[in-house]
Amino acid sequence: MVMLSPTYLIDGDITDINLLALQDDGIRGLIFDLDSTLLAPRSGELTDEVAVWLAKARDMFKVAVVTNNKHDPYVEQAGRLLDMHCIGRAAKPSRRAFLEVLALFGLPAQQVAVIGDRPLTDVWGGQRAGMKTVLVWPLKTMNEPSWVTMFRKLERCFIRS
After folding, report:
1. pTM of this structure
2. Number of neighbours of residue 146 by Cβ within 10 angstroms
3. CA 5, 9, 14: angle at the middle one, nearest 5?
């Protein structure tokens, strides 16, 4: 069984991440998961709280999105909305898209953190690429079905504390 240990385990969503702490830890680039981390799935809508947090992040770090989402028009729309490079069809936990972003950033893996809500895709993929990882809960504004919440809790059994 794969056991995962994110570098940072956040008991909240993306807006609860302390950007100064990441910067103080030598992070210079951030790679975000898209669905449930930045936007509610298939919504194409950015909440005001996430927009404010992202503006601060964009001022402090190089930023990009790596998503497993295969709907190309949606991924392109999200890239325009977020004003950042988005790579879809990433097949996380594959390293390919993460390494592509590293080349785009011109940074070593140790200076980049992957932020996402899924241990078996975001955390594992970031670790496989040699990056630091930040595991968050889905956006506070989302209302997921109870079976999805149960699956998320089960998935977190793979986290080593």
Report:
1. 0.92
2. 7
3. 135
Q: Which two tokens stand for residue 37?
A: 């981390």
CB-count exposure of residue 94 (10 Å: 0-12, 13-18, 19+): middle
| CA nearest neighbour of 84 among 110, 105, 65 | 65
Q: Count of domains in the chain?
A: 1
Strand order in the sheet with 85-87: 8-9, 132-135, 112-116, 29-32, 62-66, 85-87
In a domain, 28, yes or no: yes
- CATH number for the domain that contains residue 40: 3.40.50.1000
Q: For the segment 35-46, what is each residue's pLDDT rounded down to a tens digit? A: 999 999 878 889
Residue 1 falls inside a structural domain = no
The token pair at 151 is 């699956």
